[in-house]
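quick one, 171 residues, struct below
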Amino acid sequence: MAQAQAVQTRLEQVLSAVQAIDHQVRELTQLMQQFARNSHATTERIEGIATIAEQTSAAMQEMSAEIGTVGQSMAQVAALAEHSRQQADALAQQGQQVAQAIHQAVDASTSIVQQAVASAQAATTQTQLLQQVQQQMEQLSEVAHELAQIVQTFTLEAAETSDRATLPRAA
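---
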């Protein structure tokens, strides 16, 4: 009888642990869903940056072809400041070498576009991986829930067996 009571106590402890695991898995699943949503938003922002960088690169190539004098190039650089602050500052400091600086900015802009596209692709891959992990966590939660039900059923059966073992027997 003491052994049955010990088994029942242990089963109740296992049930409690499984329920705690189930709760933690559900919380982790919610966090993973939130992270996946944030990752998707980040991907969209990176794609927007890539579009702006491509537009900046195209605009800078057009301006580089049209620049004839340092004064004209400085006015054009000021118009580009909204899209490329670093390139505009470099052009303002170089004054005499504006045409060369714009060519360098075009190269940098192309690199930024490539990096932004690579970042967007990496973020998309991470979002897909997070969705897969989320699905696996949901499956794990379901399995943990089923395990909790099995342990609970087994605990009830053990308690009934224990109760029957302690009932006085008819002579």
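Helices lie at 2-66, 70-80, 85-94, 98-166.
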